[in-house]
Amino acid sequence: MTAEIIDGKRISTQIKEEIAEEIKDLRKRGSSVPGLAVVLVGDDPASLIYVRNKKKACEATGIESFEYRMGHHTPQEDLLKTIQWLNQDEKIHGILVQLPLPKDIDTGLILESINPEKDVDCFHPQNMGKLVANTAHLVPCTSAGIIELLDRSDVKIKGKRAVILGRSNIVGKPTALMLMHRHATVTICHSRTEDIEKITREADILVAAIGVPRFVKGEMVKDGAVVIDVGMNRLDNKLTGDVDFDEVVKKASLITPVPGGVGPMTIALLMRNTLTAFKKQLGKENQR
Fold it and tell me: Which CATH number belongs to the domain containing residue 187 in this structure?
């Protein structure tokens, strides 16, 4: 058996094209369009690449992009003032503060200062609470991207056994919640999990977001499993995932590559969240 590759680039392009069509229609009707503000503090090289990619995605979809760059030594108070100003700006429908922030800035405080209705990363505790209750209209981008990859690859989720490697607030926990909401039976594994190989071999859907390059070996995967690799690690000057692709591709039925799998989906779903936030805010304005 050799797994079929799930092409995240192709699927993300489809999603961005769908968003672009909807925004084109808004412009034809004389409507305002979604606006996304990205705030970058410092000059972290990876963050600069992410911000550039988000700007390109905005251009591709027709979302208006607003970029705010601040120096590495920017006082926390100045960053909070910028966010409060963006919270009030009616041209801005989504606010994203690029992480990581400098060590002397309280990341939790900054994320909580974003208006939950404009929190397109879905890091605000209020939005995470809505995700738990299955009432969220904004959902974490990477986790939503994983669900889209499964849906658009015709993977049945209901009734399946899903195993998540990693318990982060950004990927592991929200992915587990979203799979549970779709009626999967979910297990989260982490660094303290005993006999982890036994658990992963039971998975119909295996999501690797543990942050260890090539952690998932062929013997850890059930024949015919669907394997989603969220990892982004530098190893031997190459980008590699949390899955040993060359081994696991021989066992799985479907697998995402790194790069070109989950990564492009995260940005595509950020664009969709911005459009969703725009429509929600526009609806409230029309009710006034």
Answer: 3.40.50.720
As to burial, measured by CB atoms within 10 angstroms (0-12 exposed, 13-18 middle, 19+ buried), residue 64 is middle
Helix (H, G, I), strand (E, B) or coil at 156: coil
Range of the structural domain that residue 46 is part of: 31-115
In a domain, 216, yes or no: yes
Per-residue exposure over 147-163, b if at least 16 CB sit within 10 Å of its own CB, e if not: bbbbebeebebeebbbb
In a shared domain, residues 161 and 106: no
Domain assignment present for 49:
yes
Tens digit of pLDDT for each residue in 20-74? 999 999 999 999 999 999 999 998 888 898 899 999 999 999 999 999 999 999 9
Angle made by CA atoms 244, 269, 25, in degrees to the nearest 5 = 145
CATH number assigned to the domain comprising residue 102 = 3.40.50.10860
Q: What is the helix, strand, coil percentage profile of the chain, to 5? A: 45, 15, 40
Structure tokens at 224: 């015919």
Q: Does residue 153 lie in a domain region?
A: yes
Quick check: 269 and 171 in contact, CB under 8 A? Answer: no
Q: Which residues are catalytic?
A: 54, 98, 121
- Check: pTM over 0.70? Answer yes or no: yes
